[in-house]
Amino acid sequence: VQLQASGGGLVQAGGSLRLSCAVSGLTFNDYAIGWFRQAPGKEREGVSCISSSEGRTYYADSVKGRFTISSDSAKNTVYLHMNSLKPEDTAVYYCAAALTVGYGISWWARKLMYDYWGLGTQVTVSS
Fold first, then answer.
1. Measured between alpha carbons, how far is 96 from 114 in angstroms, rounded to an integer?
2. Which of 44-59 are b and which e, b meaning 16 or more Cβ less than 10 Å from the residue's Cβ?
3. How far apart are CA 107 and CA 49, in angstroms?
């Protein structure tokens, strides 16, 4: 199983980036794919998740209205479209795959729910 995150970079505040998570080695539609981020000195936190089995998406309050998650099953790829970026969005962004959907509205943000993780991609937002 491999999850490959890409698309990070340096952008000015107010700018946009699109992250990609290319997934291989598993049945794509069987898994929820989540995006997490970790800033220096901080805990890794959930940003967004797309769950095919539930037919829904999830977002952290800090990114609602600015970030959009989408997927292309033909390409086995999940995207995170990030708009109106802020300096506080600076972090390493990771994608992860969860086979089992949890309970409650915040299951997706629990790191232990995820079975596979990719290496991260750095996003830096300058002020």
1. 6
2. bebbbbbbeeeeeebb
3. 10
Question: For each of the chain's 127 residues, which pLDDT tens digit applies?
Answer: 999 999 999 999 999 999 999 999 999 999 999 999 999 999 999 999 999 988 999 999 999 999 999 999 999 999 999 999 999 999 999 999 999 888 888 999 999 999 999 999 999 999 9
Give 3-state DSSP helix, strand, coil % of the chain, rounded to 5.
10, 50, 40
End-to-end CA distance of the chain: 37
Alpha-carbon distance 3 to 12, whole Å?
27
